[in-house]
Design brief:
With 533 residues, the protein is of the alpha/beta class. The chain is built from 19 helices and 14 strands. It is globular.
Length: 533
Amino acid sequence: MRLKRLAPLFATAGLLSTSVPLVSATQASAAPADGYLNQKISWQRCESDEPTPDSFECAALKVPLDYKNPGGATIDLAISRLKSANPDKRRGVLLVNPGGPGAAGVEQPLVLGKQGLPKEVQDQYDLIGVDPRGVGKSSPITCGLTTREERDSGRPYRPETFDSDVAWAKAFADKCKQNAGAQLPYITTRNTARDMDTVRALLGEEKISYLGASYGTYLGAVYSQMFPDRTDRFVLDSGVDPARAWRGMQQAWATEAGPAFDRWTKWVAERNAEFGLGDSPQAVSDTFWQLVERAEREPIDMDFQSWSGATIRSVIRQQAFTPSPPVAHLLMSLRASADGKPLPPGTDLTEMKKLLNSVNDGTAAGLSPSAAGDGQPPADNSDAVYWSVLCGDAQWPSEAGQYAQDAARYKKAYPLYGDIASNIKPCAFWDRPAEPAVPMDKEAKVLIVQNEWDSQTPLVSGQGLNRALKGSRMVTVAGGQGHVLYPRNNCAAAPVTDYLTTGSLPAQNMTCTNPAGTAEPESIVPPNGPGRF
């Protein structure tokens, strides 16, 4: 489903009938001007290319670009509401965020409904979706990037090509400054959390509840620390470790890929009669690395698509956490192509192309940087916001030499993805963040849910979030694989639903296992590809 547009709704006559404060000076560093409290939310039916229920409405707000300068520039904030299915049982609002950063959230209330959000949750809450600042219909930013530029962040480290990597990262940052320099310092998680609190106040709510996935867990954690008195029932699904935001989170993709790769080779070896890639984990590993080495010498062409060694490594890094036949079929097909042989019978080239286009290494053809039609945001909007947040939330190393040293060291220790994760990124050339990272020093009685085998926010990351948030509880799905659990993962759904509907946290951290024979829920693809949270 795609929303076609949001109505331009900026009625300012009259105050909302609420005395709920917007933000305090300590929470925002400066209180917004009273004018932002004068807005009335004018809800209207969302226009969509698919039928939507009458209870699904859209609106737009104005918020300050810089909360320290509320009299300065403003930006639009697109929001949606799926009203409670049973008003007599309504207890408040549940803000929802799908992850990213850079993913639109206005449609998320409908998405959760399609995924099976329990009726008792939909009865108790109005579901509130938001396109975060800079994203989608919320004053979208652009770096004016070509597809080659925006998809090239997964660059492998080689000493002989490192100078070109440095040049790419600098050109990326320079182009973002040129096209969105006035907005970049303010496209941060801190300011997105402030926007959440603006939405809370304009909805007339004293507190908000929240369901955030992946990057949305970090956003929820930041809100809980900036606005602890307004934090109600917060569910953080597939956790980001605040101590690793953000370079450390990308490096966790490398450190945690090793155990997943070992598990994957065992799975493939057990099915050697089907795949023929090796009858032992070591044999499968040897087949894989031999194929990577061949592709490093000369990319493998298959159905007019080019596969480099880095592309193959990037695909396996993400897919190893959820072993499945398509990835084994990919290696079979690549091996046949490299040998000049016909593809195996039944090869699904559409699936192969999907795997190729899912990685951020710049090999796939793509879109122009110009704005898309029908009121859609610029083609590079997601990437522009992704790097704005990652670079604006925390200081990254500024010396190119450190990236070269780290990439070489990580490549040796974590050969599957270490060099790609640690190689230089645009943040090396970003301006220093306008604000420090939010300290995690306040109690937050939130619920964290986490799969054991998660490629984007690995188990160690969820555990780090649990340690950081004092008073939090964590439900771990032993053997659970894939990214994002609720509401579809059976054994995690019950404690989440109980918490959202009763406010009761588990007495302590707990581990659950899906019943034997239960089909593993399909992993949610991270917003805009596996190079996201």
